[in-house]
Amino acid sequence: MQKKPLILISNDDGITAKGIRTLVEIMNELGEVVVVAPDSPQSGMGHAITVNNSLRLDKSFAFEDMGIEAYECSGTPADCVKLAKHHVLKDRKPDLVVSGINHGSNISVNVLYSGTMSAAIEAAIEGLPAIGFSLCDYAHNADFSHIRHYVKKIASEALANGIPKYVALNVNFPSIVKGEIKGIKVCRQARARWQENFDERKDPYGRMYYWLVGDFISEDDAHDTDIWALDNNYISIVPCKFDMTAYESFPAIAQWDI
Amino acid sequence: MQKKPLILISNDDGITAKGIRTLVEIMNELGEVVVVAPDSPQSGMGHAITVNNSLRLDKSFAFEDMGIEAYECSGTPADCVKLAKHHVLKDRKPDLVVSGINHGSNISVNVLYSGTMSAAIEAAIEGLPAIGFSLCDYAHNADFSHIRHYVKKIASEALANGIPKYVALNVNFPSIVKGEIKGIKVCRQARARWQENFDERKDPYGRMYYWLVGDFISEDDAHDTDIWALDNNYISIVPCKFDMTAYESFPAIAQWDI
Question: Could you report the predicted ipTM of this complex, rounded to two decimals?
Answer without folding.
Answer: 0.92
